[in-house]
Design goal:
The protein is α+β, with helices and mostly antiparallel strands. Helices cover about 40% and strands about 25% of the residues. It has helices at about 15-25, 60-75, 80-85, 105-125; strands at about 25-30, 30-40, 45-50, 90-100. A hairpin with a 2-residue loop joins β1 and β2 (about 30-40).
């Protein structure tokens, strides 16, 4: 599987984001709050979005740095979750909201994203 992050893997439609906030389930894995929602089957089994609140990080440079770190951590570790959900008859949309007050190093963010993906896999995977 290619380690790419295409536009088709991103949540960018207003309707999807509103549905996610309205009826999605959530959990916290510090420094992230994660919202997820099952939707009808699409070409990609998992679509994600990343949110870094301006309230916590005033400078765009800091927000962009954290977004790059989160997206990169997801890109590297997404294969297990995608393989679990590939045979399912639904797709999953997920948003990662950064709730920490300081920018963490990439290794720490990668570890937390990996834990989140494992948790999502156990929640929505075939074994469930």
């Amino acid at each position: 599987m290619a380690f790419t992050f295409k536009k088709s893997e991103r949540v960018y439609k207003r309707d999807e984001i509103q549905a996610l906030f309205k009826s999605g389930s959530s959990f916290n894995e510090f420094p992230f709050r994660v919202l997820s929602l099952k939707i009808e089957k699409e070409e990609e089994p998992v679509k994600i979005a990343v949110s870094i609140p301006k309230r916590r990080f005033k400078k765009a440079v800091d927000r962009n740095l954290l977004k790059r770190r989160v997206k990169e951590a997801y890109r590297i570790n997404k294969t297990n979750l995608r393989e679990l959900l590939a045979e399912e008859d639904f797709s999953l949309i997920v948003i990662f909201i950064y709730i920490g007050n300081e920018a963490l190093p990439f290794k720490h963010i990668e570890h937390k994203i990996n834990l989140i993906l494992l948790r999502l896999g156990s929640k929505y995977g075939k074994d469930n």
